[in-house]
Write a structure and sequence with these properties.
- The chain has one domain.
- It is built from 2 helices and 6 strands; from the N terminus they run E-H-E-E-H-E-E-E.
- With 133 residues, it is mainly beta.
- The chain has a 6-stranded antiparallel beta sheet.
């Protein structure tokens, strides 16, 4: 068993990616048996304009896997999504990650077309704020 990381939040994709484009690529939450990546594409059904009762499946966001998993490749797998399907699309939002160890918190964001890990800064108060007694 490996180190476990949990993700919250999502990175929205606009416009959504048609399901036919992502099927069988290991990213879809709609094909659990085929999930092979450390992040997944959230697939929903949306109505087709002008077609009463017609729906199509589309990927609307990048999300973390449910539960805690060893997500060592979450950043390169997110980058793979951006590289494969990012042309003409925007990615907004973030995934907040927390690991098993105290203080292991970070964010996965997409900045200028690159999936990046963002670590928080810890700042100690200066002496003018006084010392705890």
């Amino acid at each position: 068993m490996g180190y476990s990381t949990r993700f919250k939040g999502e990175i929205r994709i606009d416009p959504p990616i048609p399901f036919e484009d992502i099927a069988g690529q290991g990213f879809s939450n709609a094909e659990r048996h085929g999930q092979t990546k450390d992040v997944t594409l959230k697939v929903v059904e949306e109505p087709i304009p002008g077609e009463p009762g017609g729906y199509r499946r589309v990927a609307v966001a990048i999300v973390g896997l449910e539960g805690g998993f060893s997500c060592y490749d979450a950043i390169p797998h997110t980058q793979e999504i951006v590289d494969r399907w990012g042309e003409g699309r925007t990615f907004t939002g973030r995934l907040d990650a927390s690991g098993e160890e105290s203080g292991d918190v970070w964010r996965l964001e997409i900045r200028d077309g690159r999936a990046v890990e963002v670590r928080p800064r810890i700042v100690w108060p200066d002496d003018s704020e006084g010392l705890a007694s």
